[in-house]
Amino acid sequence: MLPRDALVGVAVGAVFGVAWVFWGSGGLAGPVPLVVRVVAVVVAVALLARAVMLLRNAPPGAGAAGAGSMFASRPYRLIVLAEIVAFFAGNAALQALGLAQYVICWTAVVVGVHFLGFGRVFQRLFYTVGAVILGIGVVGALVGLFGGSAVAVAAVTGLGCGAYFLAGSSATLLRGGRTA
């Protein structure tokens, strides 16, 4: 059975996966935004429902924000605080420089770095999450730097991050369902 923190992570990944998909699909033409958003919401609702069901049946112990949870730890709070400061500072700088199309890329890079911090402090698995999300942010920026439109930058970055978070949450549930 998955630990409570992992189930909370599934829920967080599902919610943020949808948020990234909505952000990345906003400028796409035709029915594409509606289709990808509906798919993301359906996947996220299924993930959330399964995570809540498993949380209800999880044995007592360290739970989200409870004693022993990473969410209640000082390192977690410090990493998230640094992430928030970096969001605002970087996004303000990009806006001031007239580079608003790269805000989504900067956000992905900051989210990736925050997961790298989690890898150092909590679990090595977060190194992979951080590297992938950071990499998606860099690829999105390269799309723009090599002539891609703001819509292309947002689509690559937002849909890439959204798909990764939804797939990662799904994989966590699938791995947790196996018994050795």
Q: Which features would summarize this protein structure in a list?
A:
mainly alpha; single chain; 180 residues; 6 helices; 77% helix
Characterise this structure.
By secondary structure, the chain is mainly α. The protein has one domain (4-176). It has helices at 4-25, 32-57, 74-96, 103-121, 125-145, 150-176. The longest helix is centred in the C-terminal third of the chain and has 27 residues, at 150-176.
Shape: globular
Number of helices: 6
Low-confidence regions? none
N-to-C CA distance: 11 Å
Number of strands: 0
What is the structure about, briefly put?
Helices cover 77% and strands 0% of the residues. The chain has 180 residues and is mainly α.
Topology:
Blueprint: H1 4-25, H2 32-57, H3 74-96, H4 103-121, H5 125-145, H6 150-176
Helix pairs in contact: 1-2, 1-6, 2-6, 3-4, 4-5, 5-6
